[in-house]
Every structure is written in structure tokens, then in C-alpha cells.
Design a protein that fits this description.
Blueprint (H helix, E strand, L loop, with lengths): L5 E5 L4 H12 L3 E6 L8 E5 L5 H14 L5 E4 L14 H29 L2 E6 L2 H5 L5 H21 L4 E8 L5 H4 L3 H10 L8 H12 L10 E4 L8
Parallel strand pairs: 1-2, 1-4, 2-3, 4-5, 5-6, 6-7
Keywords: Oxidoreductase
Pfam families: adh_short_C2 (PF13561)
Family: Belongs to the short-chain dehydrogenases/reductases (SDR) family.
Length: 236
């Protein structure tokens, strides 16, 4: 079903964020992406923003509102990793990952909620990871930041659920991106052996779940964690 609602995807210049933005464009939405560098896909408005900076987030929203209109769907996707074992993890390794992945989602959603409350309509979609609830050695910072999005979405649902606003989490597993393509073949084989589906997901399979959550058919779904992981994280 096509719609011309306004969507903002953070980190929409590459990887999963880019695939999500492309899918929204294809479905007729008016799409903006934030990027620290590079451009979003064709048909999108790219705005510069570092999600760790509240003033930059505010300016990005002001530009989108001026050029496209109030943001009705926000996809908090921007994220970083600084993987290392706990004993070697520096304060900065921890703080920067949490400030980007969790703090960035907070800043973006807080700013988006103003317009959503006025419109009495909103879709908040937070991009987490199977690692958030499954865990992963060497990723205490990343996993903590991603699992925190579940508590954030559920608290948001209790606060804003009566105003036509939903908040959900999409938790991708292993996705075919440049990052996974660089893994040694043997490592890829091991990973695939642990996934019941026996393969990695395409970025578009993640985008499908996101676009569905953004639409009218999912208006009674909120505070949910939707895994797109081929069964890897079942029960977690």
C-alpha cells in the first residue's frame, strides 16, 4: 500500500539503513535520511547529522520539516561498533557506542515525538540486533546499547500508546552486507551453521519488516521485538 507519509531514517547512506530508505521510496513515502558523510539513495533528501549531538539532530529535523513536512515515521538505525573483550574495553569504547546507539535513538525519537503528538499519529521503529538479547563475546558495549532499545520502546509505548503512536524494535541477525562479505569463508560457514535458515538475510528482508511496522496494518502492534534473524535468536 503506498502512502506519502514523511519518513526519516538515520544512518541511511549505507547498509541496512540504505535498504530501508530505498524500500520506503519504492512504496511512495517521502523519505529523508541522516548521514554523517555520503548521500542517501536516489529519491531521498539527505541531511547532515551526528546523532550524538542534540543540536545537530534538531537542525536536521528542522530541514526535513521545511522541505518535506513533519516526520511521521522515524527509523532509528544509526549505529557503531567498537568490539573488544571487556578487560580491554576502554571507557571511550563503551561510552561512544552507547551514546551513538542508545543516546542517538533517544535524541532522534524525542525530537520526532513533538510532531507525532501534534498529529496524533507516529511510528517509531528502532533497529536493534539479535545480539541485544542473545549476547555476543566481545560486544558488551554494543549488546547493552541494543538491548536497551527494548526497554526504551516499551516505556515509550506506555507513555504515548494512547496518542496513535507505536514504538517497536526490529532485531536483525546476520545480514549480507560489505561487513559480512569480508569474513573468511570458514567463519561464514560456521555462522550459517548456527542459523536455522542456513543463510544470511538480505538487507531488503529487514526493510520489509520495517515498512510493514510503519504502515496502517500494524497500528495495534507496539512494544514488540520483531526478529529478522532466520531463527538464530529464538526465545531470546
Amino acid at each position: 500500500m503506498s502512502t506519502d507519509r514523511v519518513v526519516l531514517v538515520t544512518g541511511g547512506n549505507r547498509g541496512i539503513g540504505r535498504a530501508i530508505a530505498e524500500r520506503f521510496v519504492r512504496d511512495g513515502y517521502r523519505v529523508a535520511v541522516t548521514a554523517r558523510s555520503g548521500e542517501g539513495p536516489e529519491g531521498t533528501l539527505t541531511v547532515r547529522a551526528d546523532v550524538t549531538d542534540a543540536a545537530a539532530v534538531d537542525a536536521a529535523f528542522a530541514e526535513v520539516e521545511q522541505k518535506l513536512g513533519p516526520v511521521e515515521v522515524v527509523v532509528a538505525n544509526a549505529g557503531i561498533t567498537k568490539d573488544t573483550l571487556l578487560m580491554r574495553m576502554s571507557e571511550d569504547d563503551f561510552d561512544s557506542v552507547v551514546s551513538t546507539n542508545l543516546g542517538g535513538s533517544f535524541r532522534v525519537v524525542k525530537r520526532a515525538s513533538k510532531g507525532m503528538l501534534r498529529a496524533r499519529f507516529g511510528r517509531v521503529i528502532l533497529i536493534s540486533s539479535v545480539v541485544g538479547l542473545y549476547g555476543s563475546a566481545g560486544q558488551t558495549n554494543y549488546a547493552a546499547s541494543k538491548s536497551a532499545l527494548v526497554g526504551f520502546a516499551r516505556s515509550l509505548t506506555r507513555e504515548l500508546g494512547g496518542r496513535g503512536i507505536t514504538a517497536n524494535v526490529v532485531a536483525p541477525g546476520f545480514i549480507e552486507t560489505d561487513m559480512t562479505a569480508e569474513l573468511p569463508e570458514e567463519t561464514q560457514k560456521q555462522y550459517k551453521a548456527s542459523i536455522p535458515a542456513g543463510r544470511f538475510a538480505t538487507p531488503d528482508e529487514v526493510a520489509s519488516a520495517v515498512v510493514w511496522l510503519a504502515g496502517d496494518d500494524s497500528g495495534y502492534i507496539s512494544g514488540a521485538v520483531i526478529p529478522v534473524d532466520g531463527g538464530l535468536g529464538m526465545g531470546h
